[in-house]
Amino acid sequence: MSVMVVDQWVLDLFGAIDSMDAPAVARAFAPDGSFRFGNTEPVVGREHVEQSMSGFFSMIAGLRHEVTGVWSGRSEGDEVTSVEAEVTYTRKDGTHTEALPVTSTIRMDGDRIKDYRIFMDISPLFAL
Questions:
Q1: What is the pLDDT of residues 62-81, one digit of tens each?
Q2: N or C: which end of the chain has fewer CB within 10 A?
Q3: What is the domain-level CATH number for residue 23?
């Protein structure tokens, strides 16, 4: 049996996401931080991150991440954290998706997010 150690900031970030607290998520970003979900255009700046998150949260009733792996390292001088998880969405009609695999790559600027990229196929959320 292995034990996974997850930094508190990762737990706090995913807790804010699962609480659908867009302002709290945006506060985790550097003022000029960027956020990109899949193949959408990146949004830059805390205000735009908050708007993007709020827009997405308005389309769902809830979500829950189960973190399954965390790796940290450096790339081009930046601290990079990769978080693998399974996320379950609750639709507005009360139905749930199966657990969907997701990987998030997060580059930091000190204690704030510089660049956050989410890689997943979200189409099952909108399938009928």
A1: 999 999 999 998 887 788 99
A2: N
A3: 3.10.450.50
Q: What is the pTM for the complete model shown?
A: 0.91
Number of independent structural domains in the chain: 1
* Terminal Cα distance for the chain, rounded: 39
| 8 Å CB contact between 107 and 80 | yes
- The model's confidence at residue 1, banded by pLDDT at 50, 70 and 90, is very low
What percentage of the chain reaches a pLDDT higher than 90? 84
Token look-up 């829950």 returns 64
